[in-house]
Amino acid sequence: SDEGDLLIKSDNTFGTAEEDALRRDFTVNGLFYNIADFTVIDYVGGLKDIESKIISTIGDPDIRFREDPIRMLRALRFAARLDFSLAENTARALQKHRREIWKAAVPRILEEILRMLQQGAAAESFRLMDKYGTLKIILPRLGADYADAVTGEQIRKNLSAIDGMAIPKDRLAPAFLIAVLYFPSFLARIRKEEGSVDRLRQAAQVLEEDLAKLHFPRLQFERARHLLGSQHRIENIGKKKIRPSHLARTVYFDDALSLFELTRPRSKENRAIVGRWRSLGQSVQPESPGKPAAGEKEGEAAKKPSRSRSRRRRGPRRKPASGGSAAKSDSQS
Description:
mainly alpha, two-stranded antiparallel ribbon, two-stranded parallel ribbon, elongated
């Protein structure tokens, strides 16, 4: 842009309460509570916007979104959670700068997507992402399927099902949420490749189209892939070549069954299938938690014989060479 790069590289600035409020992103986020007299201090017009049910940036939205593109996703998430609408200038700026979202750090983009799924307003969050053009930019595979009459309707139903779950959404693993989100896209891929029976491969292809660029954690990716790939086995319990005890022993069995329940019609037949699996799950010994070994078949825990160590006499322990030290690393949550 000929106006220069406005991205904020560092924001560790201290000042007065008013200066702090003006640095925040949205007016509804810039309110302070005075414990001395139990009043709300409003430097940015946040109370008025709350009354009007509007999400509005503090200051010029064109500048605010270019300073930190992740604010565009935060605006949509806040609007969805609060059942607010975007202020006109905020909406125009979001649509104008939506392609700059990839200037934000990738982990922050993924974090916002997961928050949309975890905060009880997933259906509305993704509707707004589609409306303002950010869905196809961040998740092009899902965005294309969301626009499809059949697959899109199923995606919206699945998102509403997540919102309706009676447990705190932040307790749901990212792998499970992603599997619910992409299950309709997975079914569409199966219909497209009728001759293929390699469900794990199909699941991986669907997920990789969007999640590779988002650097979705590999362990969670593998779990989501197995959740999707196991659905045909759940549906076809009792049929030949289905070895139910293997699936029932896996660490992801409960999530796989929950995925089936959440994404299928509540018919008598499906309730019977779930009942049979639950009975089976109670009768087998589950495998130890952990990631399946490379090359391990779906649903089978790695059962490698442990090699017993023979006791042997050791010589005197040598003193380590001087000059070396173990590197320490700090991690941030």
